[in-house]
Amino acid sequence: MVTKQYILVALLVALVAMGCSSNKDLLAQKDQRIAELEGQVDTLEGELSSERQRAADLNAELEQALAEYKQKENVMLEKIEDKSVITVSDAMMFSSGGVQLTQKATELLDKLADVLANHPEREIRIEGHTDNVGIALEFQSEFRSNWELSTARATSVLHYLRRRHNVAADRLAAVGYGEYRPVADNSTPESRAKNRRVVISVGPKL
Prior knowledge:
This protein is an alpha+beta fold. Helix content is 55%, strand content 17%. It has one domain (53-204): CATH 3.30.1330.60. It contains 6 helices and 5 strands.
């Protein structure tokens, strides 16, 4: 009887020891995983900090490059999260109803391209926008609607950057929104002028 008791006690001690050992292994694995996750978080935070710094540097360079245009209120530069957003009136960019870039537009784009060359990791998205006035009769054979006109203007900017400055094609995108993303109500000539614009967003590649 005593022997059986000793055996039962020994088995119980062994099971407890095994359980403790198993718990220690699980805790060790958990601690290791926590350490790995903390390391990943530190890495991501470092990358985020670097990305914010790159965005700030780009915006500062654009501020300097576009200063003379901003003073004349032809160009607006905003920093929206991690993007630099440049808005230019179509009166500066194009002749009325057309898609040919003006001399002032090419000068502006040349300055912009000089900055972009220092930031090859950034993506350039070009948007064309119009007011809600329909296409004039003399241009309807070329542009069926403001969608076509706004898209053609955006791609005109894209092709200039591509041909003149050899900006990599995979950095460029163009889209036309026509009259459907206004920033003013189109009720006056002044508000319609605000809606006729080109928007160039420069930010990290998706």
